[in-house]
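Aim 2, interim progress. The first record below pairs a target sequence with its structure tokens.
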Amino acid sequence: MLFFAGIILYLVTKTISFLPHTKIFQAVAVALIFFSTYMIGAISNNNAWLTRVKDLEVKVAQAETKSANTNTEIVEKTVVKTQVIKQRGQDIIKYVDREVIKFDTSCVIPKEFVLTHNQAAEAPKK
């Protein structure tokens, strides 16, 4: 609106020359045109930045969703690995208990017991 008011004022000062202080009105009209053009550019720039911000907010929300899904998968894998390690440890304990009963009477440490003990001490294989 300010832009159009400046153009109208400028045209009026050019067409009607008998107005007093026409130079002042022309200067005001030109100033209004320049100021309104500047403000139109500023508003356009602001809208462009707001659009970019909204696009980036959507991307961030998508990344957060993907991150949450990945975190869930990692937790599930960790739980499964922990269960496998616990089960492996329980199986080895059962095996050792079963084998110790066989060799308990002679007080000899059997080769199988040593191998099983060493296997239990090893890191789980991937």
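The second target in this work package is listed in the same format:
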Amino acid sequence: MGYVERNTWSQLIASAAGTAVYLALVLPQLGSTPVGEIAWQWPMVWTIAGAIVVSIVISILWGIGAGMRDPDEEHRADQRDREIEHLGDRVGQAFLVIGGLAALILAMVQAEWFWIGNAVFFGFFLSAFIGGIARIVVYRRGMP
């Protein structure tokens, strides 16, 4: 497994874990707290920051392990890696647009900030996660 593919896996793992933590912190409040009073801002900030840190740590540790196992492995992106990255970005971009449009519509109908913030958050999550899945599929099965 190459350097870029390992980083993609690291990002997938960290973003899924971060989103799961965020949902575990916020979803229980939906049943007992009015939406306008839910403490969602700081849990979102900390899970985003935590996911970034976890992704970096996983990538570094995985890279060290891979380097020890196969010191001759290439650690730079080649043309195929760049094409796969571009394809994943295109796939993920659609979900970013959907999240942005959802947030815009929610703002137009003057929805609670909770829903607007979460629409943007999940647009970013889906963009990163589904774009990452697309990259992994292409790494495993080849370019379409």
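The chain has one domain: 3-141. This observation will shape the mutagenesis plan for the next reporting period.
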